[in-house]
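Task: sequence design from structure.
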């Protein structure tokens, strides 16, 4: 889901799934602009162009709506990382793709990343579980893909993946918050180069060989 939610006339008929998607778009815009605590269901209903009863038909309360939205965008981040790592030829390409996935996610005009990384509801256990779960899934993907050729055991592969995911997330956020003063492609190249210089210390393992 990208872009601002387009108001829909109250009389417009949508399928249940289309209405739900439209409500989530509106909620994303309101939560991103106001934060969880300041946002009201009235604001979300107005943004979506529906009555409050229609909103409550789909989501029994603000917390349930927020969790659904958080889950949607957490899944989006995981899918971006999965797609970025798919069919990459070697570890250098994989490292760059992983970093680029985070930069593209934070740069998305929908502002989805703020719901994941900057939520004022991060202390709520179920919301935190959604974010932590997405992070762990990204780490799993990177551990499997980036270290395929490195000949490392699972624990060491995962530790490298944690480092790459952490580097990607923190630097992408900083890049956006600092006004994108470094062009996106150059920023990705800088950070993936840093990651690759570390991963390059683990030589390609071929055939039946294991780590030395």
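Answer:
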């Amino acid at each position: 889901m990208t872009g601002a939610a387009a108001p829909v006339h109250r009389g417009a008929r949508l399928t249940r799934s289309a209405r739900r998607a439209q409500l989530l778009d509106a909620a994303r815009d309101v939560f991103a602009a106001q934060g969880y605590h300041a946002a009201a269901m009235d604001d979300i209903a107005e943004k979506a162009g529906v009555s409050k009863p229609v909103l409550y038909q789909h989501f029994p309360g603000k917390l349930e709506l927020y969790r659904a939205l958080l889950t949607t965008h957490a899944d989006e981040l995981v899918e971006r990382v999965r797609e970025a790592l798919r069919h990459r030829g070697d570890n250098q390409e994989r490292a760059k793709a992983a970093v680029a996935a985070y930069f593209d996610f934070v740069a998305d005009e929908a502002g989805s990343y703020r719901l994941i990384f900057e939520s004022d509801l991060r202390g709520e256990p179920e919301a935190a579980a959604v974010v932590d779960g997405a992070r762990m899934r990204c780490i799993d993907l990177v551990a499997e893909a980036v270290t395929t050729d490195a000949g490392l055991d699972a624990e060491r592969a995962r530790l490298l993946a944690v480092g790459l995911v952490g580097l990607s997330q923190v630097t992408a956020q900083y890049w956006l918050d600092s006004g994108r003063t470094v062009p996106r492609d150059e920023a990705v190249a800088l950070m993936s180069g840093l990651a690759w210089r570390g991963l390059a210390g683990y030589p390609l393992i071929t055939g039946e060989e294991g780590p030395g």
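Residues 62-85 form the longest helix (24 residues).
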